[in-house]
Amino acid sequence: MTLAGKKVVVVGGSSGIGLATAELAKSEGADVVIASRSAAKLDPVAERLKVTAILADVTSDQSVGELFKRTGPVDHVVLTAAQLRTGPFKSVAMEDVRATMEGKFWGAWRVAREAGIRPGGSLTLVTGFLSVRPRPNSAIISAANGALESLARALALELAPVRVNAVSPGVIDTPIRAAMPEAARKEMLAKTAAALPVGRIGMAEDIAQQIVSFMNNGFATGAIVYIDGGALVN
C-alpha cells in the first residue's frame, strides 16, 4: 500500500472527484481527512469510509485556518472544492463571477497558505480543461481554471520541497451535473462520449488515479496533466 502511514487531506472529499480520491487514498493505506462545507454530505461519507470529517468552507480565511489547525502537519493535500456560477459573458451577474473566483481560485490560495505540508509531500489542485479549450457561456470558469494552473506552477517554486501539481479534467460524470434535467444530461454526455477518442465519458475514479499518482511520484512538481479522454487532440 503506497500511501501507508501518510496523512491525506481532501478538501471537497464528500462527493465527486474528491470522494473518489479519498476512497483510493484510503485503499492505499492513507490516514484520510475529508473536508466539506456540507455536513449532510460529509458525515455519511466519513462513516462509510471510516475517515475523519471536518467541516470547512474554502471561502473563509478562518474556516480554512481552523481546518489545518485541527489536522496538524500532513503529507498530501488535494483541493477539489468549488462552487461554479457562470453564464453569458455580457449578462452573467458580477456576484456570480466573484463567487466563482472566490471559491475556486481564492479557495485554493487559502488552502495552499494554511496547509502544513511536510517536505516532500504534495498539494494537488483540480482545475478543468476549459482553461485551454474554452466554450461559450463559461468565460469565468475558463479564467479561474487558467489562473489555478498558473498558481500551481508558481507554488511549485515557492513551496518547494513541497510538490505542487494540477489535474485538469475534461467532461466528467459527477454529481455536479445532477442539477441538469436528466434527459438533457444523458443527451449531453452521450454526444460528448461519441466525440471523444476513448468513446466514453470520464468518471471521478479516472481523475482520482492521476491525483494519487501525483502523491506517489516524488519527481512530479509544477505539472499540469489534462485527463480529458482525448478532447484536446480531437
TrEMBL record:
InterPro entries from the UniProt entry? KR_dom, NAD(P)-bd_dom_sf, SDR_DHRS6-like, SDR_fam
Keyword annotations: Oxidoreductase
Where do the Ketoreductase domain residues begin and end? 6-175
A UniProt-annotated Pfam family: adh_short_C2
Has UniProt tagged this entry with the keyword Kinase? no
Q: Name one GO molecular function term.
A: oxidoreductase activity
Q: Answer yes or no on keyword Hydrolase.
A: no
Q: Which residues form the signal peptide?
A: none
The record ties this protein, via Gene3D superfamilies, to: NAD(P)-binding Rossmann-like Domain (3.40.50.720)
User: In which family does this protein belong, per the annotation?
Assistant: Belongs to the short-chain dehydrogenases/reductases (SDR) family.
Protein's UniProt name: SDR family oxidoreductase
Q: Which organism is it from?
A: Bradyrhizobium guangzhouense
